[in-house]
Design goal:
single chain, binds cytidine-5'-monophosphate, five-stranded parallel β-sheet, alpha/beta, 12% strand
Length: 216
């Protein structure tokens, strides 16, 4: 079993950036699990399906082709909303479980980010981070990202999306977004990307030393 770094947290908290920089630093494989749920949502919408239809959403998850994760459409605002709606269905989460669990066996290690990695997908991960920031700061970051992708949207609408998504992701019955009891909290509200990465690296180094997984 490789060394697993589980990175959870709400939308636009900085977890994706921190996760990919950690993966590059250690030469680990990286999986952004939000893309899986986004691709399921996009797939279902593409076939005219209803996001609230649990059976249709489960079928879309079972038929997911990983090439769909590469499509630009999965990174839009609509895909984020669709993802959080299909993510409430237990059958969707079950259909995506093995793929994620399998990923955590990669050698020499893996970085996997999402909402339920430290709690459900990799509860035994030796390094767990819960990355967060205030809703206002996350909305500002997401607004800049969407604007950079050419998606014109008002900041107030992005902030409303963030609040709605937080409530849905933490309020659902199936694998709700929550900080694992052994995860280290990293609040990036007042941090630059560089500072957040540095703090994350120190958390992981402490976990590596504790587990005897020292750089060699
Ligand atoms: O991280 P991202 O914003 O791309 O995730 C999109 C949505 O997918 C989240 O709002 C959440 O509902 C869902 N998700 C999840 N479990 C994960 C990753 C994402 O439920 N491990």
């Amino acid at each position: 079993m490789g060394f697993v770094i589980a990175v959870d947290g709400p939308a636009a908290s900085g977890k994706g950036t921190v996760a990919s920089r950690l993966a590059a630093l250690y030469g680990y494989a990286m999986l952004d699990t939000g893309l899986l749920y986004r691709a399921v949502g996009v797939r279902l919408l593409g076939t005219g399906g209803d996001l609230d239809d649990a059976a249709a959403a489960e079928a879309a998850a079972k038929g997911l082709d990983l090439a769909e994760l590469e499509r630009a459409e999965v990174r839009t605002r609509a895909a984020g909303e669709a993802a959080s709606r299909v993510a409430v269905h237990t059958g969707v989460r079950a259909a995506l479980f093995d793929l994620q669990r399998q990923f955590t066996t990669r050698e020499p290690g893996s970085v996997i980010d999402g909402r339920d990695i430290g709690t459900v997908i990799a509860p035994d991960a030796p390094a767990k981070l819960y990355v967060t920031a205030t809703p206002e700061i996350r909305a500002e970051r997401r607004w800049k990202q969407l604007s950079g992708q050419g998606e014109a949207v008002a900041y107030a609408d992005v902030l409303a999306d963030i609040h709605r998504r937080d409530a849905r992701d933490s309020g659902r019955d199936s694998a709700p977004m929550t900080q694992a009891s052994d995860a280290v909290l990293l609040d990036t509200s007042e941090m630059t990307i560089e500072q957040a990465f540095d703090a994350a690296r120190r958390i992981v180094e402490t976990a590596r030393a504790r587990s005897g997984n020292l750089p060699g």
